[in-house]
Amino acid sequence: MKNLIPLITLLIAFFTCIRIIPVVIRIAREKNLVDEPNHRTSHKRAVPTLGGIGIYLSFAITTLFFASYYYIPEYNYLLLGMMILFFLGIKDDILELSAKKKLAGQVIAALLLTIGGDLRLTSLQGVFGVYEINSFLSIAISAFIFIALINAINLIDGIDGLASGVGILSLTFFGGCFFLMGHYGWAMLCLAMVGALSAFFLYNVFGSTNKIFMGDTGSLVLGIFLTAAAFKYIELNSILASPFTISYAPAVVIAVLILPIFDTLRVFSIRIAQGKSPFSPDKNHIHHQLLFLGFNHRNSTAILLGTTIFFLGFCFLLKNLNINLLIFLIATTALLFIGILMTIKKQRSKKIEPLDIRKLNTKENALEKTQFLERVN
């Protein structure tokens, strides 16, 4: 029975979220809790936010019911940390929080999980030649990674299905690995989140009249859970003796989370080089570059998720290499990928013929003007 529970939780979380999301959409519209289109957004009409409510409630309801079937010592702290970011995200989606308050909440949640829940890295497993690390460094490094990945997931939530797609892909992988290693409790947690995210994905990507965004509520909750699952995966691979454990787990985590990790590092580097705050909004994300090249939201998401699968396969294909060399090759390949993308964009930009904007200032050509300005910017 315990072997089947992870699959059961996936289905229950999916159908629970399917029922919750329409209620959230209706309330969001009645209270005007919608995201209006502006110069930074890629949608053209007002869309309800707060989709993260459906994701979190579906996950929490399902896992609270089934958690007693397993011994998951971190579960209470995990749920509490997620709850902190859940309410933080709701307030930010409705009223908008300052960056300092949002960061303070993330720090509290991260320390709660690393210290209270003991969800932290105790060894770097050879990365940079480092293995065991003391408790203080373990907590400091783990809390920093928690905060970094929470914000990384938040930053890639810019087009339909991307953040939820990364979550579905990553957590399906982690959940499958936990299952094969015999750690059914964490397999259950991961697949419950996959179920909730899958239901949201349908509304977010394929919804027309019932479209919804996850908002900060969803991206913050997803970010902290995804990081916790990644830490647990790395730690179990370092202590369990199983035919399915590996010695290069940190490299695998980097590969499966290559998009949020690399895109955040890249965008922050560009902003700092331009003398801007690393948190200042812009359209330099990889998904924005794909939109510029003419791909729509679905195609851009499919390309980026396909790229993630490529990196994961690339990692397993070169598993016999030294872990530092493997990480270096992953990073180099990611740089090559973005280099090719930016070269194509540059060549495409040169082909855009100059237009007389004054001719586009008519009411009939308003959409054409908007599209033109998005392309040249």
Describe the structure.
This protein is mainly α. The protein is 69% helix and 1% strand. The protein is built from 14 helices and two strands. The protein has a two-stranded antiparallel ribbon with strand order 1-2.
Features:
single chain; mainly alpha; 377 residues
Q: What is the gyration radius calculated from CA atoms?
A: 21 Å
Count of individual helical segments: 14
Name the average pLDDT: 88
Unreliable stretches (pLDDT < 50, length at least 5) are 353-377
Brief overview, please?
The protein has helices spanning 5-30, 51-66, 75-94, 99-116, 135-156, 162-180, 184-206, 215-239, 249-256, 258-273, 286-292, 297-317, 323-351, 366-376, and strands at 34-35, 47-48. It has 377 residues and is mainly alpha-helical.
List the helices and strands and how they pair.
Blueprint: H1 5-30, E1 34-35, E2 47-48, H2 51-66, H3 75-94, H4 99-116, H5 135-156, H6 162-180, H7 184-206, H8 215-239, H9 249-256, H10 258-273, H11 286-292, H12 297-317, H13 323-351, H14 366-376
Antiparallel strand pairs: 1-2
Helix pairs in contact: 1-2, 1-7, 2-3, 2-7, 2-8, 3-4, 3-8, 4-5, 5-8, 5-10, 6-7, 6-8, 6-12, 9-12, 9-13, 11-13
